[in-house]
Write a structure and sequence with these properties.
The chain has 218 residues and is α+β, with helices and mostly antiparallel strands. Helices cover 26% and strands 25% of the residues. The C terminus is likely disordered.
Amino acid sequence: MVRLCNDIDILKIEPALFGELHPANQVLAAGTGGELAGTTFEASGANFVSAGVEAGDCVYLKSADGVLDGAYEIAAVDSATQLCVSVLRGDSESDPISPGGGSDITHRISTFKPQITEVSLRLVEYLWIKPGQTIGDVSADAILDSDEVHQLGAMGTIAAAYRMLASGAGGENLKEKWQHYEQLFGKWMERCRVAIDKDGDGVADSVRFGGCGWLIRD
C-alpha cells in the first residue's frame, strides 16, 4: 500500500476536515470520558490498536469546559487505551507539545487514508514509478520522504476529500473548494521534483520531474 502523506499533513492545511467536516464513515475510534495529562491521552475502554490508529493520525478532542476543542497530532500509540498527542508541530522530529490537560474529554479519530492511498497511486502512476509498471526501473518504495512529497500528497487528498463531501447532501457550497484544490494539485504535479533512491542507501540516485513526459519506442 502506497501512502505519500498522512493525516497530519492534511491537518496543517485544512483542520476543518477533522472538525465539522470530518467524514462520518471514516471514523476509526470515538468515545467520551477521556483524560489528558500533558501529552498523554487516556481513554478507558478504547482499543486504538485494533482500530488501526497510527502515529501520523489526528485526534479531535473536546473537553466539557470548552478549553479543549480542536484536532491534534497523534505522535505515538502507547497502548490500546493510551495515545501521545501534540499540538501541531513544524517538525515531526521535535518533542511533542502538550495541548493542556483535563478530564471528561470527548475524542474522535477520523482519517483520510482511503483518499491518501488513491491520490498516492495517482501520483506514482503519473511519475511512472508504480510497482509493476512496464516502464521504469524503480518502485514507489524508492521515493525519498520529503516535505514536497507530503505537501503534494496532502493537496491531492484535500481535493479528493472535498470532492467526496461535495457529492453529498448540501455539498454545493463545497464544490468550489474541491475545484480549487484540484487545480492546485494539477499545477503542483506538473512542477514537482521527486527524489528516487534506487539502492536503498538513503541518498537520491535520480530525480523524477512532474512536467516531463516519457517517450516509448515501439
